[in-house]
């Protein structure tokens, strides 16, 4: 009976030793795979961000063009066009004032 127990405990010790070796091996493999996974995940994330940024810029450009087309079709004046009209009206008012002064001199 003691001989059987001795063999059993020797077997248990060997099994524990092998399990420790396997555990160390799997731990090293897991660590290596995790590093690879993190690297690939980082690359994929960066690529996705770049793609999303490109798509966002494309959408902004398209949206701006469509809004400009709609404004042009509707006949709505843009800020620049209103500034041009304002400048022209100011020049026209100056000319009218000059003509009004000349008319007063002639009639007065």
Description:
This protein folds into two domains: 2-76; 77-108. The longest helix is centred in the middle third of the chain and has 73 residues, at 2-74. It has 108 residues and is mainly α. The chain has helices spanning 2-74, 79-107. The protein has two helices and no strands.
Percent range of helical residues: over 70%
Biggest sheet features: none
Specify the structural class. mainly alpha
Tally of separate domains: 2
Strand/helix succession: HH
Kindly report how far apart the N and C termini lie. Answer: 144 Å
Number of β-strand runs: 0
**In percent, how much strand structure appears in the residues?**
under 5%
Mean pLDDT: 90
Radius of gyration: 42 Å
Number of helices: 2
Low-pLDDT stretches: none
Shape: rod-shaped
Record keyword descriptors for this entry.
mainly alpha, 108 residues
Brief synopsis:
The protein has 108 residues and is mostly helical. The protein folds into two domains: 2-76; 77-108. It has two helices and no strands.
List the helices and strands and how they pair.
Layout: H1 2-74, H2 79-107
């Amino acid at each position: 009976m003691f001989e059987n127990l001795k063999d059993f405990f020797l077997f248990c010790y060997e099994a524990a030793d092998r399990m420790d070796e396997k555990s160390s091996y799997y731990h090293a493999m897991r660590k290596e795979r995790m590093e690879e996974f993190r690297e690939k995940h980082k690359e994929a994330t960066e690529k996705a961000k770049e793609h999303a940024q490109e798509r966002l810029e494309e959408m902004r450009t398209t949206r701006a063009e469509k809004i400009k087309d709609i404004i042009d079709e509707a006949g709505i004046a843009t800020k620049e066009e209103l500034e041009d009209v304002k400048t022209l009206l100011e020049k026209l008012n100056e000319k009218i004032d000059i003509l009004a002064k000349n008319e007063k001199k002639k009639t007065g």
